[in-house]
Write a structure and sequence with these properties.
three-stranded antiparallel sheet, 230 residues, mainly beta, 15 strands, globular, twelve-stranded mixed sheet
């Protein structure tokens, strides 16, 4: 398993709840598990995403499914208020992950332990195909267009460099959006695109647990490599 970014896609929310007597922050953690679907050589393959965020710093998070399989989450970009892991690319399978209740054991940096659970219902979303995914020399950008889908609640477009590091995130794209441009500005930190480098375009499409929820039921992943400048 490895860290995501979710980009990902889900942003941790700091929840400032306090005790009237002690005025200390009451620790609260939220955990989520969802199925990730992608196509490999035309075949649908499945993995898992597991995510925990809290209003206080965490030291470790370990999730366990009803079969006893365990999943160690890691701090996202060393941010100890948010932990994440997802199935490594080579470990995706044609079999759906185990459904049921996933229990998250959360250890805070002060040693306190919390138990949080989330139900995996087995809902999936199929990835869509790119109809355009190429460098546009006239406008110095990568143009991306994809097939429409009625399944997702929103999408996020990201870019990885040749080392696999996420260097670009789009804003959250509504369900009706089917195109986006990755320009030479707005990249992560002070990163700038490198002429001739191969980047991986990733389109993540997400289904929420319900209309008001920040938790997810499913994610679909579509990827394609593009050379910047060619």
């Amino acid at each position: 398993m490895k860290k995501f970014s979710a980009g990902l896609l889900i942003v941790a929310v700091a929840m400032g709840l306090f005790s009237c007597k002690s005025e200390e922050v009451l620790p609260i953690a939220n955990s989520d598990v969802f199925i990730i679907t992608k196509k490999v050589d035309g075949i649908l393959m499945y993995g898992l995403g597991l995510h925990t965020y809290a209003n206080v710093p965490m030291n470790s998070v370990v999730a366990e499914d009803e079969l006893g399989d365990k999943y160690a989450l890691k701090a996202y970009n060393d941010y100890t208020y948010e932990y994440y892991t997802e199935t490594d690319s080579e470990d995706y399978t044609t079999a759906l992950p185990a459904t049921g209740t996933y229990t998250f054991g959360v250890t805070l940096t002060n040693g306190e332990e919390l138990a949080v659970s989330n139900e995996l219902a087995g809902i999936t979303i199929d990835p869509v195909a790119f109809t355009t995914c190429e460098y546009d020399a006239d406008n110095d950008r990568i143009s991306v267009v994809w097939e429409a889908s009625s399944e997702e609640d929103y999408s996020v477009l990201i870019l990885r460099n040749s080392a696999g590091t996420k260097v670009y995130y789009s804003s959250t794209l509504g369900a009706s959006v089917v195109s986006a441009n990755i320009t030479s500005s707005g990249w992560v930190g002070d990163y700038a695109p490198v002429q001739g480098e191969t980047y991986t375009v990733e389109l993540g499409m997400y289904v929420k647990e319900d209309d008001s929820s920040t938790l997810l039921e499913a994610k679909a992943l579509t990827t394609q490599d593009v050379v910047w400048g060619e």
